[in-house]
Amino acid sequence: MNQRQDLVGQRAPGSRRGKGGDGAERHEIIYRSISDAIIEHRLKPGARLREDALAEVFGISRTGIRKILQRLALEQLVTLTPRRGASVTRPTAEEAHEVFAARQMVECGLMPEVARCVDEASVKTLHELSDQEQKALRKGDHSAAIRHSADFHTCLARLAGNATLAEFVERLCFRSSLILAVYGKPGHLGCETHDHATLITLLKEGRGQEAAVLMGNHLRAVEATLAIVEEDQEAPDLHQIFLS
Amino acid sequence: MNQRQDLVGQRAPGSRRGKGGDGAERHEIIYRSISDAIIEHRLKPGARLREDALAEVFGISRTGIRKILQRLALEQLVTLTPRRGASVTRPTAEEAHEVFAARQMVECGLMPEVARCVDEASVKTLHELSDQEQKALRKGDHSAAIRHSADFHTCLARLAGNATLAEFVERLCFRSSLILAVYGKPGHLGCETHDHATLITLLKEGRGQEAAVLMGNHLRAVEATLAIVEEDQEAPDLHQIFLS
DNA sequence: CCGTCTATTTTTGTATACAACAAGCAATGT
DNA sequence: ACATTGCTTGTTGTATACAAAAATAGACGG
């Protein structure tokens, strides 16, 4: 909230150094702002992200915005169409399946190691995340719920101690959030079950193999709540539609 | 080869449009040029990549180079130090272990699916890659051997039909190449064994589980040939060294 | 009244200019 | 002789200016 005030606002050419935050840090904040907005569905898939508009909102020039958009594009949260600019990625049905298959492989594969590594502090953090998610869900705050769910899975992956794999899982979770936005049925919402809490219990007791199985079922269940069908945008067959 | 001629050379301010290739395509070519040079160890870890120099070499302005460097940084092939510029990433020992652990999980996990998907054409491609690698190895052409080895593993991963996972494997292979450059013993070189050929045979016969086991051993063997020890760069204890 | 062509406007792509920072070097003082 | 400090130089960070390409709207002809 406070940063907002700093970010927007005056940008007299010389006053650049006056800010407390370093330049790179400001970029990081802006990156996260946009990233969060996408993950929390405040920016919906397909939404256009004009450089000029973003530059004005955050009080930096287009150069910085472009850098950030490029980063988001590499993480597949936004799509950069040449000469058309940036928009929030709308995952295809195929991508959706791929992402869930990838999560299935990596997240399940990580469980045994996580079961070996958990300690008191981690369990506490996981519980908090899980509780926050449930609370948000009950309040009907979809944005927060999605955010906490992604955080839960990411946090879990991090416990295995492999930063490379954890980062991969994080990205998959972000993309999952986009998939939910596109293919999720209005009623259902992501990880609504009690699975997360059960998962924590299993891991705490060192039952890694069972945790892996549960995680597998959990991911399959989430994917099953989706209506992953490609609504063909390009070349809708008019003959098929009108001459039937 | 032809593009090379176009890329270097004159860059009269107005001649920008004269090129046959589209702008984005040229960027892709430059990206690949640098990426290849890193993967094939023609640019060694730690090598500095000055924007100005690269801009001149490829005949575009620093803006384009920065974009490319940023992309390479996100793929962890180059490291961007604030105010110090870009250099070829020197993986830490920890990163090295992480990358191999990740490959272990993903590449092995992919084998059953690959065994299900292989067809005649794929087998032929894989054999070619494997042969080229062996040939390069015999000729002592390390660059080509490393390249083909990475291509082999990437191609294999692609066969499973999951582009997301395949891309992840590709990146891991690239990073593995860097790891080899830093921690590889001069004598040994990557995948020197007959494993690749054996792998193809197993997959062709649909023995996915056995292929997974072999892949596991293969990766462990490669990692075992490395001398992964952190040579502490910062703060070498001079007292310890000279006053012993 | 509708379709097409053109002009305008909007938006991105690229280069360059300028300012800030880090590093190396020299000079001076202790 | 050594350390510290200030200057000079090289390199990156940021903004802006300009050019090219879409999208849009308007005019003209059928």
Automatic annotation (TrEMBL), chains A, B:
Domain HTH gntR-type positions: 24-91
Keyword annotations from UniProtKB, A to Z: DNA-binding, Transcription, Transcription regulation
Pfam families: FCD, GntR
Region span, Disordered: 1-24
InterPro entries: GntR_C (IPR011711), TF_FadR/GntR_C (IPR008920), Tscrpt_reg_HTH_GntR (IPR000524), WH-like_DNA-bd_sf (IPR036388), WH_DNA-bd_sf (IPR036390)
PROSITE patterns with a match to the protein in the record: HTH_GNTR
Glycoprotein keyword on record: no
Gene Ontology molecular-function annotations: DNA binding; DNA-binding transcription factor activity
Gene3D superfamilies found in the cross-reference section: GntR ligand-binding domain-like, Winged helix-like DNA-binding domain superfamily/Winged helix DNA-binding domain
Coiled-coil segments on the chain, per record: none
Protein's recorded name: FCD domain-containing protein
Protein source organism: Halomonas icarae
Lineage of origin: Bacteria, Pseudomonadati, Pseudomonadota, Gammaproteobacteria, Oceanospirillales
